[in-house]
Amino acid sequence: MGVELVVEAGELERDSPLVMAHVAPEMLARAGVGGALGTGPVGDEIEGGACLLREVDGAGEPVEVVAQYDPAARTLAFVVPGRLAPGSRRRFRIQAGPLRNVAAYPVRLLQKLDRVVIHVGGEPFAIYNVLGARRPYFWPVLGPAGASVVRGQGTGEHPHHTGMGLNYGGHSEGGSTNIWSDWDEPPYGPGGRMLHRGFRRLASGPVYGELVEDLTYVNAYGDPIIDEVRTIRCWWASPSARFFDFTFHVLRADDRGPQPFLFMIRLAGSFDIPNTGRITNAAGYPVPAPEGMERYFRAAWIDASGPTGEPPPAPPAAPPETLVDLPGAPRRRAGPGSGPWNGIALFDYPENDQFPGLIGKYAGMRGAVQITQVHYPPPHALHGPFTFRHRVYVHDGGAAAGSVAARAADYAQPCTVAVRETED
Length: 424
Fold this sequence. Notes:
Layout: E1 2-8, E2 14-15, E3 18-22, H1 25-30, E4 49-56, E5 64-70, E6 75-79, E7 83-84, E8 89-95, E9 107-111, E10 115-120, E11 123-129, E12 137-141, E13 164-168, E14 193-203, E15 209-218, E16 224-238, E17 241-253, E18 261-266, E19 278-281, E20 297-298, E21 301-307, E22 341-348, E23 358-359, E24 370-375, E25 386-396, H2 404-412, E26 416-422
């Protein structure tokens, strides 16, 4: 018996999409690829397993891709190479026998005491910091040019707006706990915290890496108010197209007020928006908004791009010669970066309640220095459980060069995959 996967592009043009197919392990075993089921414990570099796919009826040399199998979810994941025209289909057959090819962009997650370091294709990509701050956050997130597209902690104005990640409460909106401003004292404090309680799953793989994290939010008095299970998946379609998928599953929400959940991306200062870099969005709303216009609006996607700066500095080998707050210290660089343009986009998910979410309600300098999209608990589940999702796309060039609108459409309406057994 053989197994074929038929990928249908549907109405959209696709560019190297990640596809997920539901495949029963018994089907893989009958196809002679039982090794794809994997035997390693949680935390192995390839937790589930991998197999090889070969394109059927493709023009020229046969195209082969490595697929990743998750036995718990019964999903086979792979990146379809190249473009798929609207209405087109691509057929792949699972190959029996040992895996011969090396994955193009394998993802490795390395857990340390306070962070998870992510490498893709042997190159550093991002760090997920889980301890030492009021909430977990990503910094750096490296774009194709090698510099971070998000800003780190303690730099510039609003130094507490850090990296990329989920925040909560805003400035104590409606009495909700503030896990946003990082203040201990009024007017914005005292604030709460998001506490990392551990990982349920931390897996590397030939196609994507994934972590599943337990978190508890506490208010300013240390009382638990929210329990969340967070799933983060990352992969590259190519070095110039890098992705994160976020799933936030709130088990319980027992706080006061409207309970706003805010996904925030603090943009790299090298973008120098709006002087040099730019922000675009699905609604065509001007950012930063001119005086007299509301700074917040609804949009299915928003993108920020600009010139990149220097790669993140290496950890110091010795104390600095001159402390930054003493005379003679070098001044912090301001203005646009000197590297190639890179960008970062945030996509909202159509099944999120109140889609598309509100953008810019909490954003310094009228939205010019960060992207923020807020979601509230759905009316039918104010205290949980409920789920919302986002995708982040890190790309080369600006929004047009990175085909941001098309990538957002692919997220909202993914291509379909049919799985069928064949007689060899």
